[in-house]
Amino acid sequence: MKIQESAENYLEAILVLKREKGMVRSIDIVHHLAYSKPSVSRAVNLLKENGYLTIDGEGGIELTETGLAIAQRIDERHRLLTEWLVRLGVTQEIAARDACRMEHDISEETFRCLKSHITRRSGGGAEN
């Protein structure tokens, strides 16, 4: 399933924040992505309407099964591509920024082959 890059970024951010904090609220996303409150509110509502997340009565955000699958796919790509770029000599900051751009556009086939190559050469790599 292909969704917009911005939606993928939100889902990935929610996954990362969930790992770090345990509970995620819209304000956490505002701070993490440095977006405005209205922008985050609109995006979160759209993601909810499209079945990618739920919001409990206290404002806690949870990824649905579909949202989690997308977030995990993007997060894996981000981590592996960042690791690979750093190994090539790119600074951590630039590698993470470039990986964020690449993770959305690379095909499944290319990513699978790249992942296989990287993990073969490293004996592991950025696995889940």
Provide tags for this entry.
128 residues, mainly alpha, Arc Repressor Mutant, subunit A, Diphtheria Toxin Repressor, domain 2, 2 domains, 6 helices, 2 strands, 5% strand
Task: Explain the overall architecture.
By secondary structure, the protein is mainly α. It has six helices and two strands. The chain has two domains: 65 residues, Orthogonal Bundle (Arc Repressor Mutant, subunit A), CATH 1.10.10.10; 49 residues, Iron dependent repressor, metal binding and dimerisation domain (Diphtheria Toxin Repressor, domain 2), CATH 1.10.60. Strands 1-2 form a two-stranded antiparallel sheet. Strand 1 and strand 2 form a beta hairpin. The mean pLDDT is 91.
Task: Summarize it.
The chain is mainly alpha-helical and 128 residues long.
The average pLDDT is 91
Class by alpha and beta content: mainly alpha
How are strands sequenced across the largest beta sheet?
A: 1-2
- Indicate the CATH topology of the largest domain: Arc Repressor Mutant, subunit A
SSE series: HHHEEHHH
Give the percentage of residues in beta strands.
under 5%
Distance between the termini: 20 Å
| CATH class descriptor of the largest domain | Mainly Alpha
Classify the helix fraction into a percent range: over 70%
Shape: elongated
Low-confidence stretches: none
Number of helices: 6
- Tell me the number of structural domains: 2
Keywords: DNA-binding, Transcription, Transcription regulation
GO molecular function: DNA binding; DNA-binding transcription factor activity; protein dimerization activity; transition metal ion binding
Organism: Zongyangia hominis
Family: Belongs to the DtxR/MntR family.
